Amino acid sequence: DTAVSQTPKYLVTQMGNDKSIKCEQNLGHDTMYWYKQDSKKFLKIMFSYNNKELIINETVPNRFSPKSPDKAHLNLHINSLELGDSAVYFCASSHHALAGGYNEQFFGPGTRLTVL
Amino acid sequence: AQTVTQSQPEMSVQEAETVTLSCTYDTSESDYYLFWYKQPPSRQMILVIRQEAYKQQNATENRFSVNFQKAAKSFSLKISDSQLGDAAMYFCAYRSANTGNQFYFGTGTSLTVIP
Question: Radius of gyration of chain A from Cα atoms?
Answer without folding.
Answer: 14
